[in-house]
Amino acid sequence: MKTKELWAKNMLGNYALPGVTITRGCGSYAWDDEGKRYLDFSSGIAVLSLGHCHPVWTDRLKNQLGTLTHCSNIFMNENAPRAAERIVRHMGGGRVFFCNSGAEANEAMLKLARLHGNAKAGGEEEKIYKVVCCENAFHGRLFGTMAVTPQEKIQHGFRPLAPGAVCARINDIESFKAAIDDETAAVILECVQGESGLTVAEPEFLKELRALCDEKNVLMLCDEIQCGIGRTGTLFAFEQAGIVPDAFSMAKGLGGGFPIGAMWCKETCADYFHPGSHGTTFGGNPLATAAALAVFDIIAEEKLLDNVNALAPAWREGLKKLVDDCPGILKEVRGTGFMSGLMLTEAPAPWIAKLREAGLLCVGAGNNVIRLLPPLTANKYEFQECLEILRKVFAR
Fold first, then answer.
1. Could you tell me if 250 and 143 lie in one domain?
2. Measured between alpha carbons, how far apart are the two ends of the chain, in Å?
3. Are residues 281 and 133 in the same domain?
4. pLDDT of 1 over the 80 cut
């Protein structure tokens, strides 16, 4: 029985039936089960920060596989504190919690918000518990994260949701001022909204929001799951605004293709957690943190942040030229850095299928955006190939 038939017969129908079966990858390219090669600018939805099967990353995981893969958090392993130290050193302090996914990392931040609210209320629960989120945000599909993901397609069928979520508008500080009250514990936002259409939080807005959170003693929580780990040209997207949140989440590109999530928080928040208040069986295991260590090493050694900053401007100019040349189909270029996209005048799904047929893998965002998420290792020739395929499809 073919893979597609096995998938359709045995897999839960929470995903649409995929269009192709990917069997192998190398760098910025992937191949399907019929041998067709694709330029993969989906990167597993921003996961493959180093591209497919980076040789150094692959060797590091092979070595770890033959040494130790799991021991639980009942015991220490050597890699987890080393990976945490890389993040703490970059941030100049703080603490790290490792888990398995982005949704779990955001769930940890929401628990941090509740604990902060309890502390503000003098230990009294259910008094200061609200979290202000952004319209069109996406923070995950667990019950806590779903509540702060105000999208009907995510929330439908699962009400009643966790209480306390309040909506405000990204880049509108007055709407946040109106949303924050005496029961607010935290605000949560993506510095670049990934799933809903690549809306970028403006630096001045982030500075104003940081000041507002300080004034109100409200935690500022940043979701860096998709926009972090170098995708915007700095290791974390909030750094471009010159601010530091009270906590932020990581996943996707952190493991370079191996599942891992993490939350960093300031030292002032670290004491909210104590043994028994949160945990995970697999989080921070030796194999996952070996992957994260390899990602940090390769980003530094290959100067991949410099690569993003060097190549993104010309690529985005090429995308803007394409928009100018196809006004009936394309409206504007969204996003920033290697987290860019094209806003269309219509639904993106048919165009994503046409691009796939032409040899380019990409993903949708919201109702009218095509997301382009190249690996941080992508070179100028691959960006040129991307633009050529886009022009061939949209001009036709």
1. yes
2. 37
3. yes
4. no
